[in-house]
Amino acid sequence: MLRVFAIIVFSAGASVSAQRNPQPAGVVMPEYVRTEVMIPARDGVELHTVILRPKGSETNGPKLPIMMQRTPYGVDGYEAITITGGKPELAASGYIWVFQDIRGRYKSGGTFVMMRPVVEHKTKQDIDETTDTYDTVEWLLKNLPNNNGRVGAWGISYPGFLAMMAGLHAHPAVKAVSPQAPMGDVWLGDDFFHNGAFRETYGFDYVQQLEAQKTDKRQDSSEDQYDFFLKHTNFADAAASAGMTNLPTAQLFLTNPNYTQLWRDKSELRQLRAPEVAVLQVGGFWDQEDMFGPQAEYTAQRAQEKAGDAKHKVFMVLGPWNHGGWARGPGSSLGNTFGRAQFVEATGQQYRTQFEAPFFEWYLKDRKGFDLEDTASFRTGENQWHRYAAWPPVQGFKPAKFYLEANHMLTGKAPAEVKENSVESRAGSYVSDPANPVPYRHRPVQSTYGDHSIWRQWLVEDQSFVEDRADVANFDTPVLDKDVTVTGDVLADLYAATTGSDGDWIVKLIDIYPDGTGFPTTAAEDAPKTQRYELMVASEILRGRYRKSFEKPEAVKPGEVAEYKWSLHGVDHTFLKGHRIRVEVQSTWFPLYDRNPQTWVPNIMTAPAEAYQKQTITIFGSARYPSHLDVNVPDTVTLP
Asked: Start and end of every Xaa-Pro dipeptidyl-peptidase C-terminal domain (predicted)?
């Protein structure tokens, strides 16, 4: 049964707190009629939905497509400014906009399940996000007059995950989806774990935000989170202190630290197949939450797309953004008081006008203008857009290696033969102490989304604040005498030993700017100054116990040289002449990731205090054990 809550007319100039994007010059935005309805799903649960459509479009003018976003974050505040300020290019063209609270959130009925797994659809009780989307689309087509029978879906982060769900078991009317920073797999590389290492602060805050109530109550502690999590020995202790132990996903953290079937069931990657609809993946190179999702989902679907298919349906845009940065503001810089990267171009605005709007215009309205062959990427350093026939690009590029060598050197030349276990065979060594872990950003560390938090932009913070620590190993090139471009996936391949029986490995690829050319700072006397800038271009962690299998962890043999190999994800960056390239290695990154005891315990979530011990780490750099980064460079480039 249809239940209508309210019908309100909003003008494009409604006063609503929102960050507006520039509107197309000379374009008059439409007024909107706002309707709230409850849409029934197949099992009888009703889903709260806000509909905004141009005034008069019910009977006059051309038939309009439907643009839909489903979200766990609440749609009560969605009004005209949501569209005209957030999607001005598409708003000017004319769409019917639909926003929905997903099952169990805000005003929607039913039970919320974090990243609800896809199930077999045998009965009306077999529901998931694909069926709720299908039922919503079916209702919209029948009840929204003067629609053109086509539907698009988009969203960022969790709504990005839901946008991809709209393209699975898709309703025939769904023609195009844009998963932007989707939660592709929250154990392998998105929000909650990266290669088995638990993202402690994020998991702690986000689970309380989504599962402690039907609405969003963000965590905001005045205590430095570095001190808080150091005080609480493990996640079990921290969770108990917050009274969150019985929340469903906290329970999953505590009882399933490995990549179990429960995590695999939540993985969107494992549901993907050859694309049913056109897909535009969007990701940021400095996305602090879901950098993994868009590239992994693109790769999964692109691999299943028929070779030579004239109806190519999988596309991707990558740019110099943090989480959702392409959707707000000009996108010409990124950073905070601890570091700022400048891109010159208005990359966010360029994305919205050159890629996003033409994508939906083509698939939902047959309007020409979407000319992306496969992938577009904004190459930082050089600060220009590039288009590629595939990602990572192959034509015009070749594989290369950056080797970690003794004397803190980073070089493109393979190491020479030396006597094994000699001083010359060792590239670096340090003592890792869980009682004094390396901070992942400048302190104090605020709650993830708390007041004054700088979480959103920490990935571009100047890395010099940890370079002099004794538990960090740095490997540098000489000052570059020419530009060096790295494009595509970066793989870390370390040969290392530890005196412990477990351990974490963090590798960072850093662009060191010349002295005096970094981000602007303010001195005590308020005089503008400029300091050297160490920009982290790529970084990632691997938990040692998962070096062979994510499903079946095993202890590390103390003193044994083992190979650790993992991806730092895709980059597109030019290290300019006069800069230096650094690879930084460490074994703690706190409290972004929980501390590894560095001794074997079955479950780190409940590790006892006595398990946390100092260990000596040795990184090798010999012909037999050539620790290095695998990169792709232009055919004309030779590494220094």
From this structure: 357-630
Q: Please tell me the distance from the alpha carbon of residue 305 to that of residue 374, in angstroms, as a whole number.
A: 12
CB atoms under 10 Å from CB of 499, counted, come to: 18
What token pair was written down for 607? 């590790």
User: Domain holding 444: CATH number?
Assistant: 2.60.120.260
| The total number of structural domains that make up the chain | 2
Alpha-carbon separation of residue 163 from 53, 179, 439, 525 (angstroms): 20, 5, 35, 50
- Buried b vs exposed e over 404-427: b needs ≥16 C-beta within 10 Å? bbbeebbbbeebeebeeeeebbbb
Among 154, 180, 206, give the residue marking a domain's end. 180
Q: Is the pLDDT of residue 338 over 60?
A: yes
Respond yes or no on whether the N-terminal peptide bond of residue 553 is cis (omega within 30° of 0): no
pLDDT of residue 13: 37
The label of the residue with tokens 């400095």 reads 286
The residue to which tokens 């205590």 are assigned: 223
**Domain termination residue (choose one: 165, 180, 195):** 180
Residue-range definition of the domain harbouring residue 463: 397-634
SS3 595: coil
- Do the beta carbons of residue 207 and residue 238 sit within 8 Å? no
Query: Is residue 151 in a domain?
Result: yes
Q: What are the pLDDT digits (tens) for 483-532?
A: 999 999 999 999 999 999 999 999 999 999 998 676 654 444 444 445 67
Residue 528: inside a domain, yes or no? yes
Euclidean distance between CA atoms 283 and 278, whole angstroms: 17
Q: What is the per-residue DSSP string for 425-439?
A: GEEEEEEE-TTSPPB
- The CATH number linked to 173 is 3.40.50.1820
pLDDT at residue 538, as a whole number: 98
CB neighbours of 355 closer than 8 A, spacing ≥ 6? 280, 317, 370, 372, 376
Low-confidence winner among 85-99, 164-178, 486-500 (lowest mean pLDDT)? 85-99
What 3-state class would DSSP assign to 309?
coil
* Average pLDDT value over all residues in the chain: 92
Q: In DSSP terms, which residues pair with 341 in a beta bridge?
A: 334
192 occurs within a structural domain: no
Can you point out the beta strands (E) in 528-620?
528-530, 534-543, 562-575, 580-586, 615-620
Task: Indicate whether 124 belongs to any domain.
Answer: yes
- DSSP of 390-409: SSS--TTEEEEEEEEETTTE
Output the six-digit token pair for 133: 């989307």
Peptide bond into 24 cis (omega under 30): no
Residue 14 has pLDDT above 60, yes or no: no
